[in-house]
Amino acid sequence: MRYFVFIIAALLSVLLSGCATNTPQGKPVLSKLLKKQGVVTLTYKRSDHGLFLIEGMTSQGPESFLIDTGATRTAVFADQAGALISQSADAGFANIYGLVNTGQFPMIDLDILGFSDLKLKNLPVAVLPKRENEENEVLPFGLIGMDVLGDYSLLVDANDRLLHLIPARYPQPKLPFEWREVSLYENAEGRGKSALHFFDLRLGNHLLPALLDSGAEFNVMNWDTAIIPTINRLKRRLRKDWEIQGAVGEFDPAVRVKVKGMRAGRMDWGENDFIVMNFEHLKVLGFEDEALVVAGAGLFADKSFYINFTTNQLVFEPHDIPGDPGKIIVEEKPSSRLD
Q1: How far is the C-alpha of 257 from the C-alpha of 226, rounded, in Å?
Q2: Which of 56, 71, 107, 294 could be 220's S-S partner, Cβ–Cβ 3.0 to 4.6 Å?
């Protein structure tokens, strides 16, 4: 009998010890995961338009980089990195896939690019043209694309302004129960770890593919979303006005609208601004002549979130949601800003 009691006690001890480090589902405890080897923790800032900016160390000193899940490659901007470009080895040309910058761009090898404990040596990066800036905002030196981010899961702690880069080999940690998951998928033109990721966004009664693009300052939808009655009426009215005014040039309007009550997976949003405009490069993204939404940095608001690119999981801290689900309100003020 004593031997039997001893065995039971030993089993309970093992079980309790396991519970101290992992959840019943086998997910690691977050605080312990963030201390594991290879996890990189960085502080970040939000730009005026909500972009995530981190400080990177280059051979010419510290510079700001934005986190861009909508870019297949890491890049520097020609006007910001002129001196560094002239000192770096030419790495030929490469095709870059993204919403704004898509095409063949020159490449250079950066001898060193560091983010805290993460050191990237001889990293081939694209050289992109000057990033548009209509409001005299301080522009980033470059962007970190999916060629680097694809090796990690991202955990953003909005309260402490921390970005954790968790090696992809580690499983999803136990997150708060109330957090809401959205399923991601890669487009047909995906390129391994550098692939862009999408999710299905519900606007009213319509389910639209949305590009997860933390490097976009604004949320955008193309005119093929005219399957939505409000957008269809708006497009017809704008075309009629254009024809009345003489129909000069190409019909290429850009208008700002407000959308209330969007949903994706278990996640709901309140009111968000969108720019409705024509997109270039949809063919290379695999969405030619199809409705497409770009979910920019604004959809992340000031909430924490977790992205696992390997398992295609996006998990949000929930937002406070007002009513009028799926309602679209058209503003008369036109807009042409996409950057």
Answers
A1: 13
A2: 294
